[in-house]
Each structure stands twice: as C-alpha cells, then as structure tokens.
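To the team - manganese (II) ion complex, inputs and output below.
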Amino acid sequence: MPELFGHTRARVGARHALITPDNHVSSSLPGVAGATAVVLVSPAMGANVAQILLSFQRGGSAAFAPSGTETFGYVMGGGATVAVGKRRRRLGPGGYFFCPAGSEWGLRAPRKGTQVTLFQKRYAPLRGAKGPRPVLGDQSRVKGTPFLGDLAANLQVLLPDEPAFDMAVNIFAYQPGGHLPFVEVHIMEHGLVMLSGAGVYRLEDSWYPVRAGDAVWMAPYCAQWFVAMGKVPARYIYYKDVNRPAL
Ligand code: UGY
Ligand code: MN
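Output:
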C-alpha cells in the first residue's frame, strides 16, 4: 500500500539498521544483468559486509571475476544454475553456495522471479591456514540443533566451522514465542534477512517489529535480542565474521 504520510519502519543508525521491502531502491551492479540489485547493507553505512538482494528476470545472469572478495549466496525463491570455479549445480529455494576469494562464480538460467541474497566481504587470510574451499549445498540437508538446548530455537550452520573460513552463515528458526535466551553483546557483526514469520528485534535500545523480507544490520557490540511472534515459526538467515584474532 502506498504510504500517504511518509511513514516507514526503516531505521538507519550509526550501529544498526532495519530496511523493509517498502524501502527498496535498486542500483546497477557490474556483472549483474537482467536483474535488480538492492544493496541492503554495505560499508556506506559503516558495515564491513555487503548484503545484496538480487531479483532475476528470465534470461538474467550474474558473473563475478576472481577478486579479494568472498561471496555466500542463498536462493530465497525460484532457482538457477550456479557455477563456483569448476563446480556447477542447479539450486532451488534453500540452495546456497560459497565462493572463496580468488575464485569466480556465476549464475545463469534463472527461473522468472528468482531471488538470491548475497553476503560479501573481503577475505581475511589467517597465517598458517589454507584458504577456504568452495561450497554448494542445500539448507534442507543441514541438520539443525536446539540453540543452547532450547527446542523453540533451532540453529542450522551452513558453512564448515574451520579456521580457513572467516565467515559463518546460519539459519535460525523460532517457534512462536521462542526467543534468544539472553541479550547478546559480541564482537561479531551481523547482516540478516527475515525468511518467514514475524517477531520483535531488539537492537541497542530500540525494539522493532520485523517480518519476512526485512533486512537488519548489527555492528560489532550492538546489543541484540529476538522474540518470535504470531502463529507460524519465524526464520532468519544471518552472516557473522568468525575465526579471526581480535587484534
Ligand atoms: O550467532 C549469533 O550471534 C546469533 N545468536 N545472533 C543472533 O541471532 N542475533
Ligand atoms: Mn548474535
């Protein structure tokens, strides 16, 4: 519904941000054709990660040359053929890929309406450790575990938890009423998109109603807490930087 009086749930602050689907404005990205690209989180707002929503028309494509940037992609809906280096796979909803820095990746033959969320960051090498390997996977094949033993908050870890990987991407699924057990305050940064359901996100000293399609950025040490509301489970996918020294 068009907003007659200029209201929005969006908020972009110095250390956290909420962007709703009603706020989306696309930009053109080199390497992306036949698609809209909405850059939801980026260094332009103070983040160290970019979170991008790509929405493809039929015949659209993406082609990213090797660089110092690594990319995680998650198919929100539709489907497409994704190539990471020499590996290639048809991914449907819930399919995902990880392309290490120094490798190329591409997407082609998307079904009409295919949407992909990207998390991109500059890779931070770790002395003595090899770089991470490419990953192609599907969320439905990843076993979840109750978060800190809580059956109402299920966590799926999509990437290997190994020193080579400096990014983690996880999916949280909360039963209605399920919540983070405490207010987290930590060095890791988050980019996040709500996949389904609704709830309330506490970010620093503000509480925001959030629902499917909303994107959230949390800077390091942003106090954070979430409770799921409504009659269906709430799910979100989120990025965090991991496995690197604090100094
Ligand atoms: O992994 C995390 O830090 C996670 N528990 N944070 C969050 O969901 N906001
Ligand atoms: Mn957290």
